[in-house]
């Protein structure tokens, strides 16, 4: 696969693009949610955002071990302290939960491909459902409800979500994220048709992101 973002992802036309690599089951992406929403609002006239599903744990099949639960809990605590995002720690009372991020990533990709303007709202809704409401977003029935919550038709979403085309498109996202050198989530890239640069990798606050983003936009203007 080529790293030609236009070929597969078409993130930019006449404006520079921001390519946001995230996963609905990435706690630091939930922490970053207010930041990316602030960027989308404040820079809507300067750059458009393309969301790429990073694929944190796609295709996992084994239930979470106690060690894995402990590591995830620690991440959640760090995100809560640093970013202030709420969490329902009742999640850790679940038995034999399989942390497979492919279904929610595919749900995100499905919305992006059919209703691109609702991509960020869908990502936020998935994050909130998982982290704040302790809902199982690996369950297609829950994903249908989340999609309905942002105004989509349940049946239409379900038909698209279960299609081979969306399964492949989600896998394309995972492959492209790795080809782009993804080392962690969230990651925000800048793309101006000639070069791809990293704006931020990992969590940071809005002021810091804006500073780096302004410098990049000034360079490509």
What does this structure look like?
The chain has 9 helices and 4 strands, in the order αβαβααααααββα. Strands 2-1-3-4 form a 4-stranded mixed β-sheet, sandwiched between helices. It is of the alpha+beta class. α2 runs antiparallel to α5. The chain has one domain: Glutaredoxin, CATH 3.40.30.10. α2 (27-42) links the parallel β1 and β2 (48-53). Helix content is 52%, strand content 10%. Mean pLDDT is 93; it is low at 7-13.
Brief write-up:
The protein is of the alpha+beta class.
Features of the shown structure:
single chain, 221 residues, alpha+beta, Glutaredoxin, 4 strands, 52% helix
CATH topology name, in short, is Glutaredoxin
In DSSP terms, counting alpha (H) and pi (I) runs of 4 or more, how many helices?
9
Q: How many β-strand stretches?
A: 4
CATH architecture: 3-Layer(aba) Sandwich
Strand order of the largest sheet: 2-1-3-4
CATH fourth-tier homologous superfamily: Glutaredoxin
Task: Label the structural class.
Answer: alpha+beta
Query: Strand content of the residues, in percent?
Result: 5-15%
Helix content estimate: 40-55%
Q: What is the oligomeric state here?
A: single chain
CATH top level assignment: Alpha Beta
Give the termini separation: 29 Å
Helix and strand run? HEHEHHHHHHEEH
Mean pLDDT: 93
**What is Rg?**
17 Å
Number of domains: 1
Poorly predicted ranges (pLDDT <50, ≥5 residues)? Answer: 7-13
- Any idea what the shape is? globular
**What composes the largest sheet?**
4 strands, mixed
């Amino acid at each position: 696969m080529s790293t030609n973002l236009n070929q597969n992802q078409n993130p930019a036309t006449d404006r520079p693009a921001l390519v946001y690599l995230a996963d609905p089951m990435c706690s630091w992406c939930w922490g970053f949610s207010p930041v990316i929403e602030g960027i989308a609002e404040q820079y809507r006239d300067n750059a458009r955002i393309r969301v790429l599903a990073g694929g944190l744990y796609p295709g996992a099949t084994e239930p979470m071990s106690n060690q894995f639960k402990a590591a995830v809990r620690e991440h959640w605590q760090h995100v809560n302290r640093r970013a202030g995002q709420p969490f329902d720690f009742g999640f850790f009372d679940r038995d034999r939960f399989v942390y497979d991020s492919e279904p929610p990533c595919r749900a995100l990709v499905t919305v992006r491909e059919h209703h691109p303007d609702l991509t960020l709202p869908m990502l936020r809704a998935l994050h909130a459902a998982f982290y704040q409401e302790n809902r199982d977003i690996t369950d297609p029935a829950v994903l249908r409800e989340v999609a309905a919550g942002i105004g989509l038709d349940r049946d239409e979403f379900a038909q698209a979500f279960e299609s081979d085309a969306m399964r492949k498109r989600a896998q394309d996202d995972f492959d492209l994220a790795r080809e782009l050198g993804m080392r962690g989530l969230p990651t925000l890239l800048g793309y101006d048709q000639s070069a791809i640069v990293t704006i931020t990798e990992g969590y940071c606050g809005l002021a810091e992101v804006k500073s780096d983003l302004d410098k990049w936009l000034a360079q490509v203007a």
